[in-house]
Amino acid sequence: MTDTTQTDTTPPAPVENTWPNPLIAGFYPDPSVVKVGTDYYLANSTFEYLPGIPIFHSTDLVSWTQIGHVVERPGQLASAHVPTLGGAWAPTIRHRDGIFYVVVTDAMGRGMLIFSTTDPAGPWSDGTLIEGIHGIDTDLAWDEDGLAYITYSGLDVTSGELPTGHKGILQFTVDLATGVPLSQPVSVWSGTGLKFPEAPHLYQHGGYWYLMIAEGGTERGHGISVARGARPYGPFTEGAAAGGPANPILSARSTDRPIQNTGHGDLVETPDGGWAIVMLGMRPTGMTQAFSALGRETFITSARWEDGWLAADPVLLNPRAGETVFADDFTGPALAPEWIAVRRYPAEVSTLAVASAEAAGGRTTPGRLVLVGEGGTLDAEQPILVGVRQRNPWSSTSVRVGGVAGSGAGLGGLGVRYDEEHHYEIEVGNGVVTARACVAGIRQEWTVPLDPAQIVDGAVTLGLDTVPPDASSMISGLTSDIVVLSVGAGDDRVELARVDGRYLSQETAASFTGRVLCLYAVTGKVTFSAFRYTGRE
Ligand code: 6LW
């Protein structure tokens, strides 16, 4: 059973543009949203993690519940050996005639794919490959005759080699049932000249078709630009050339707003008939250089039509009140949908052991998650690991780890992972407890003997906290957070290390993902119980 709570779920006062922000906290980038009647469905990128592409549901655009995943079976993506950065990359979710579609690029994997279903909670189809066309950030729209257009960004990331050259925003028509292109890709717009024109979405509104894109790169220069035309295939004219507003219509670049990197958005009608843009953004902290520990999250802002052009408000920070609590006693029939794994499914690397009362000693064994190590560490391409996203800047995570004391015992622990080369962890086994920081091939370890007093009912408590930096020091205050690695509970808790958090951030790590708090095993059978995450803003 899991227990997910937000101690105060009252949405902020319904004054214009006081949306809760982040809308969905933690590593949930590239959001795409569709309105179907009074229901909203939202999808995100998941890259090398599985299950892939979470689907969230809402009726008010404010409260969101995860209802499933598009990718939940082997074969839907070619994930097993996908390079870091590859995998489920920028989905678009749309609906027509009772069918939901997600178009997405499995970057460095299968390629451009069409998934469909009649129930967005799943199951989704196996994914139909669009052969011969290479690019990212696929959008889906239909013209008045029902012809389907895929508009996409011409960056070819098929091979895993660094892409050279960007072909701008391209478009072709497609048979959605077979994935067969009905026309050759043609260039439709390349933005205003900023780098990486990407994330196109096409909307029909009033007498025009609007092509909304992101440009400036997913870093601090990110923004949203819009052009319009009479037909879905253009030609598209931008505002400045037609007496409308200048592009980008939304960007936080060169401002001191707490939410930066805003771009890659999708437009949606609000329940009251207004408009909003849901987009990715980051929350960097530090100073002139700043670091975004949580990666790229989902944010929202109000938008409106003004004289035939789209305008958007700045994206304001407005975190949900109270503590975020995610606790798992591992007594459910399957792992909760929040748990993810790297290049394999959680069910491929873990099992659940039911709680039991042992007849002999009358002892009660709690529900446990069992991981059996394969020798690989957190550096491995396919680590034995399951994790949940860190959702708040300040957090406290603890878990009880069993099967790690005594001869023949296992080795495993609790970590925070950005990718193979960027992770901090605390692990227990072989008679010692080790805290470790790994950053781009550089590693440091702090090891102490395992104190028998730390073994309670056969298990050791490990802790990982993210706390504010020491603001009194010019040097130590310039980071995102400090990661504290500890062993033991209550008065017996011992801190092994305090590590600068900036090296596990979007600005420094390789992956496009975010921080994942993970349970892992290196060798032997390691059991985990009483997982608890508490987060604060
Ligand atoms: C995505 C692109 C982007 O394809 O980053 O910020 C890429 N936007 O649109 C990966 O998420």
From TrEMBL:
One of its GO terms (molecular function) is hydrolase activity, hydrolyzing O-glycosyl compounds. The active site is at residues 30, 198. The record marks 137 as: Important for catalytic activity, responsible for pKa modulation of the active site Glu and correct orientation of both the proton donor and substrate. The keyword Iron does not apply. This is Glycoside hydrolase 43 family protein. Keywords: Glycosidase, Hydrolase. PANTHER family: BETA-XYLOSIDASE, BETA-XYLOSIDASE-RELATED. GO terms for biological process: carbohydrate metabolic process. It comes from Cryobacterium arcticum. Pfam families: GH43_C2, Glyco_hydro_43. Belongs to the glycosyl hydrolase 43 family. The lineage of its organism: Bacteria, Bacillati, Actinomycetota, Actinomycetes, Micrococcales. Gene3D superfamilies: 2.60.120.200, Glycosyl hydrolase domain, family 43. Residues 328-533 form the Beta-xylosidase C-terminal Concanavalin A-like domain. SUPFAM superfamilies: Arabinanase/levansucrase/invertase (SSF75005), Concanavalin A-like lectins/glucanases (SSF49899).
